[in-house]
Amino acid sequence: SSVNVSFDAQGAQSADIRLIDLSGRQVKVIKADNLNGEFSTELNMSDLADGVYMLNISAGDMQTTRRVIKQ
Questions:
Q1: SS (H, E, C) the chain
Q2: Cα 5 to Cα 10: distance, rounded to the nearest angstrom
Q3: Is 51 left (phi over 0), alpha (psi -120 to 50) or beta?
Q4: Which of 15, 31, 37, 63 could join 59 via S-S bond, C-beta 3.0 to 4.6 A?
Q5: By the 8 A CB rule, do 54 and 15 touch?
Q6: Burial class (CB in 10 A: 0-12, 13-18, 19+), 22
Q7: Which of 34, 14, 17, 37 is nearest to 26 (CA)?
Q8: Is-above-0.90 flag for pTM?
Q9: Given the DSSP bridges, would you call strands 51-59 and 62-70 parallel, antiparallel or unpaired?
């Protein structure tokens, strides 16, 4: 299974996308450079256990966290 991650980079040059399990361990990290506007990627979660994860996106002045549930 996978989750689609997309956002407007708002002029940021780079972004860090982290998938964190509930114990606080980073299980996936994507670093995106040379951004230009809209960013989109598929985050493969097939190798992860079912459960709740936090998706943290940091790009320039923007930082957001979303809950992701893998079933």
A1: CEEEEEEECCCCCEEEEEEEECCCCEEEEEEEECCCCEEEEEEECCCCCCEEEEEEEEECCEEEEEEEEEC
A2: 15
A3: left
A4: 15
A5: no
A6: exposed
A7: 17
A8: no
A9: antiparallel
Q: Please name every residue paired with 42 in a beta bridge, in sequence order, or none if there are none.
A: 4
Tokens of 36: 């230009």
- Average pLDDT of span 62-67: 93
9-62 confidence digits (pLDDT tens)? 777 788 899 999 999 999 999 998 878 778 888 999 999 999 999 999 998 888
Q: Show the tokens assigned to 59.
A: 């790009």
CA distance 46 to 28: 12
